[in-house]
Amino acid sequence: MSATPEPTPARLRAIPSRLIAGVAAVADRLVSERLAAVDARKWHFAVLTALAEDGAASQAELSRRTGIYRSDMVAVLNELGDAAYIRRDPDPADGRRNVITLTSAGERRLERLGALIADAQRELLAPLASGQRDELTRLLTVLIEHHRPPHPGAPDAK
Description:
Layout: H1 10-13, H2 16-36, H3 42-54, H4 59-66, H5 70-82, E1 86-91, E2 94-102, H6 104-124, H7 130-147
Antiparallel strand pairs: 1-2
Helix pairs in contact: 2-6, 3-6, 4-5
């Protein structure tokens, strides 16, 4: 057995799903490390982004927008609420549920987390030229859109 790591076999280096998984692991580590440094998680960023882009929502709607399981959403909202990044108010249309709103502190937090994530993206994509970064993003978007299951409320959903 050699002390120097052997190169990955060519056949394995030619499998797109394996390459995507490897890059995804690196990307996840880079983003998670940066967010952890400010006591945040990816789910915090997802919820704050959804509220900033699409406005106030119920817990169930935020779960659909972000892909965060409803059971996990409660913990995420508790963390964000305890830090005053979101506000929960009774829904005037249905007193059994709350409407979640982004606060001004949440807007500032989102800006900070966005800068950290942008920094992680720069590190991840450093070997690529600007056009290559754009093309990679475009191609990954095509794959995600093709394999995304239809939204349960969509007309073509079964």
